[in-house]
Amino acid sequence: MIELKSVSKQYLYGARVLVSTDMTIKSGEIVALLGDDGSGKTTFLKVVAGVTDFEGEILFDGEPLAKKPDDVVMVFDDLALFANRSCYYNLAYPLKIRGVSKDVIDQKVKACADRVGITASLYSGVRKLSLIDKKRLAIARLFLRDCKVVLIDDITKGLDKDEAAVLWQEVAPALQDFAKEGKCVIFSTRDYKEAISIAKRIVVMHYRQIKQIGTYEQIRENPDNVWAAQAFDPDYAFEKAKLSFEGEKLFATTEDGYEIDLGHLVGRIADSYVGKDVYIGWNSDKYDVFGDRKEKVEHAFGTT
To answer: b/e string for 94-127 if b means 16 or more Cβ within 10 A?
Structure first.
């Protein structure tokens, strides 16, 4: 189990990421970090991996995770491959520096290469590989040694749609197998379909901030903000309005003067929003482009 306690990261130029973040990731759980480039996904993974400094505390089974570097394996977004070396060298090196015998190294390297389908390229230089095979080589490292935490950073980034789908079909079952073995699995992605395909919980990130943490169903039905709502629905419709009570009834008045009865949202909207500008919105599958969409408002939340 991984515990993040008041974890924050501040860059030298002042930007802050993961401001005072508290989160628990259970053993055997798969968590997806969902967000665009620059949302903070890579920083989140690097903090957990212990390869960048941070404020706060990260524990694994009650002990500082930083004291257990061999319990963590990570595939970085840049793949971290030795470009001028062979595929064999790239797989053998992590074992060699840990003092593993040559015979065992050879056995493990060949088995891992076979598992990801790059046996034919094992003795070729990394530069000769296609991007998808470079990613397969990086993934093969996950199987070299036993670990307790698996981190993968946006593994399908840079691939075309078809290649991304092929690679994800190869990677997803492996991550599920890791979880079944009791490992904590965290992966980042820009594709919500990848996130919901295997993750038990999803961390929605936007502009270096965590916007919401929950299951797909929780976030989809009760988003905390516009960014969380749009994470799974790019066509999520919203507009600015002002909330007000008239007697016991709750209304939203849009900027064009249209008044909408929000009685069905009483109790689901923070009292502090009344009298202030908010965003009202609804999922695109319930959006009627012919005029009656405003009667189907599903959510209301702050503008910040």
So the answer is: ebeeeebeeeebeebbeebbebbebeebbeeebe
Report the distance separating Cα 296 and Cα 224, nearest Å: 18
The candidate with the shortest Cα–Cα distance to 206, out of 182, 230, 183, 184, is 230
Q: Which residue ranges form the domains of the chain, and what is each CATH number?
A: 1-68+148-233 (3.40.50.300), 83-141 (no CATH), 235-302 (2.40.50)
Q: In this structure, what token pair is assigned to residue 76?
A: 């970085």
What are the tokens at 24? Answer: 């628990």
pLDDT digits (tens, 9 = 90+) for 25-62: 999 999 999 999 989 999 999 999 988 899 999 999 88
Strands 201-206 and 30-34: parallel
Q: Give the whole-angstrom CA distance, residue 277 versus residue 263.
A: 17
Three-state DSSP state, 111 = helix
Contact 235, 283 (CB under 8 A): no
User: Would the pTM count as exceeding 0.85?
Assistant: yes
Which residue is listed with tokens 């999922």? 283
Q: How far apart are CA 101 and CA 115, in angstroms?
A: 21
Render pLDDT for 221-277 as a digit per residue (tens, 0 to 9).
889 999 999 999 888 888 898 988 877 788 888 888 888 888 877 777 766 777 888
